[in-house]
Each structure stands twice: as C-alpha cells, then as structure tokens.
Design brief:
Elements lengths: L3 H27 L8 H10 L7 E5 L5 H10 L2 E6 L2 H13 L6 E5 L12 E5 L2 H14 L5 E5 L6 E2 L2 E3 L4 E5 L3 E2 L2 H10 L1
Parallel strand pairs: 1-2, 1-4, 2-3, 4-5
Antiparallel strand pairs: 5-8, 6-9, 7-8
Helix pairs in contact: 2-3
Amino acid sequence: MIDIANILLIVLAVIVLTVCVLWFVVPLATGLPWVPSHEKRIRKALQMAGLQPGERLYDLGAGDGRVLVIAAREFGAFAVGIEISPVHCLIAWFRALFCGMNRQISIRCSSFFSTRIEEADVVFAYVTPGYASRLRPFLERQLKNGAQVVTLSAEIEGWQPDDIDSSELVFLYHMPPTSGSIATYLSAKVIK
C-alpha cells in the first residue's frame, strides 16, 4: 500500500525539480543565461540614464524583477519587465507584490523581440555581446527620439556611447544613436 506522505513527497520533488529545470533551461535555451544584476550596478545604470519619476522603464530580460523594483521604488518610474521564462515572471510578480510596487510594475511573459517598446523612456538590458548586436536593429526601429538605452557588460556595436562607467561596465546611449564605438567615445573625451 502506498503511503500518502510518500506520494506528496514525490509530487513535491517533481514540482521542485521542474521549477529548477525551468529556472535555468528556458533562459539558456533562448541564448541568455540568468545572471542577476548587482543592485549597485542597477542604481548606477539608472542614475546614468537620469531616470525620473513618472518615466517608463523597460527591462529587457527582467529575470527576477530586481531592476523593476529599484526603478519603481527609488526612482518613481513605471517599470515594465519583459521576460521569456514563466518561472522568472512569477518570481518578479511576487517581488513587485511583496515590495508594494505592483501598481508601478508590469511583467510581460514574452520574448523582448516580439514586444512593442516604443513608449520607453529608458531601456535597461543586461545582455551578452551577441545579443547586443541582435538588439540594435530592434531598438532602432522601436525607440522614440530622446529615449535612452543602458546596457550592462556589453556595448552596442556601431553605436558610440554617450557615457561609460568603466568600473561598473555600464554603457549609456541616447536615441537616435551616434554612429561610432567605444574608441570614438574615448577619442572624443581625449580631444576635450
């Protein structure tokens, strides 16, 4: 005879295993591993962008929602997270709810390449260099003039940053972007 406690234990183990697999497999299958941003880097990126109360921030690959909560709580922004992993979306939603920021935060479970972001004042992206190059035409098509893009760890090839924080490896761009690279940015700094 099968014991109810053993059945419940097996069901719980299957649920935990499924969540763990989805936590890592879905992001890896899309090409971007889940790597959380450190709060210091997030704050630096949002400060560089000059995020203001009431502005709309889009976090492409929102993960567990930490960027969204900081943007809403500390900067007064309306934050929209785009995340492909349903498990991460659920965690981000709970984080927003428990922080009392659920009225300023929206989570969309989809690929950011299939999302409309033209309302964005600031776009935050922690991506690999390969994804940054794929992101470039998407941003150029969708973002309005004056919108800003902040990336962590990866520059957007073909765009000259407006500012760089080399200690936190944060790159800031304004739309429409200036053609160039880190080299043209650095040479412009030296000339000044």
